[in-house]
Design a protein that fits this description.
With 281 residues, the protein is mainly alpha-helical. It has one domain: Ribonucleotide Reductase, subunit A (Orthogonal Bundle). 69% of the residues lie in helices and 0% in strands. Helix 1 packs across helix 8 and helix 2 crosses helix 6. It is globular, with a radius of gyration of 18 Å. It binds fe (ii) ion (FE2) (2 copies). The site of one fe (ii) ion (FE2) has 6 residues, from helix 4. One fe (ii) ion binds next to helix 2 and helix 5.
């Protein structure tokens, strides 16, 4: 870890995931409704990750630490690759007959409004809140293999790759915020208020997309199927239940993303990739 407490080199990996043979309506081992939950997250990524990149880019030229400058380069490189692969993912959803265009347009419109309403400092605070969301969900996904058990290996591979890189760069935007917006009371209040804001809006977006995708897939009337989602998320394997403590840690004044040191996952993924040339499924 560097002096700023962040992970070391952040590498941009130009990986492609060919989803041609994948059943986009039923690729997850926990069934079609959990599949659409993940698909609902994917709908947010292309526009969401553009928002993250832009909010960090705004401060890029003012960053004084060369180490952090280098990490920002890695962060933008990784998010650009995620955005590209989720554009392809979402195209595969569209080809499977799901109402992707309408949902993506809604996300774009609300983010455009966010860019108008919030200052660059607040947009960066929104980014670090969402980066914390992606980092803790990534931690959950990587720490328990049951999270993707029985899933299409290509999709597991894609989600694990994204989770690994979200872990690698989890503190970059946060460190830019500390350097450029500050570490005092004002910066803290802005950070936690926008986390509260993001917590409501993020789940509103996910649930909205999830309902529309389930309707598009023709499974919206299946009550038993819907019940599989809270059972999966909160009971077994319970990825969201397991990260509740990590979510709440964000509200402490001295919080830093690397206080949860989960570099082991990154190292394991990297050694598998180095020895096989393939991202692990
Ligand atoms: Fe990402
Ligand atoms: Fe990210």
């Amino acid at each position: 870890m560097s002096a700023s407490g962040t992970a070391d080199a952040i590498e941009r990996r130009d990986l492609h995931f060919d989803l041609d043979d994948c059943d986009m309506n039923r690729w997850h081992g926990a069934g079609p409704h959990v599949t659409q939950f993940y698909n609902a997250l994917s709908i947010l990524f292309p526009e969401g990750e553009k928002f993250f990149m832009d909010s960090v880019r705004h401060f890029r030229d003012r960053i004084s630490s060369p180490g952090l400058q280098e990490q920002v380069r890695g962060f933008i490189g990784q998010e650009a690759m995620h955005s590209r692969e989720h554009i392809a993912y979402n195209k595969a959803l569209r080809d499977a007959g799901l109402p992707v265009e309408k949902l993506e347009a809604g996300v774009k419109q609300r983010l455009r409004l966010g860019r108008k309403l919030f200052s660059p400092e607040s947009q960066l605070a929104i980014t670090i809140a969402l980066e914390h969301f992606t980092a803790i969900m990534a931690d959950s996904l990587l720490s328990d293999r049951r999270t993707l058990e029985g899933s299409d290996p290509k999709m597991s591979s894609l989600w694990r790759w994204h989770a690994i890189e979200e872990t690698e760069h989890k503190a970059v935007a946060f460190d830019v915020y500390r350097e450029q917006v500050g570490t005092g009371a004002g910066a803290y209040v802005r950070r936690v208020l926008l986390m509260l804001h993001v917590s409501i809006h993020f789940w509103f977006e996910v649930i909205r997309n999830h309902v529309h995708l389930a309707r598009g897939a023709g499974v919206a009337g299946d009550l038993k199927g819907w019940l599989s989602v809270p059972r999966y998320l909160f009971v077994s394997p319970g990825p969201l239940r397991r990260v509740l403590g990590q979510y709440l840690a964000y509200y402490r004044p001295g919080f830093h993303p690397w206080e949860r040191d989960n570099r082991d996952f990154v190292e394991q993924w990297k050694s598998h990739y180095a020895s096989t040339g393939q991202p692990p499924a």
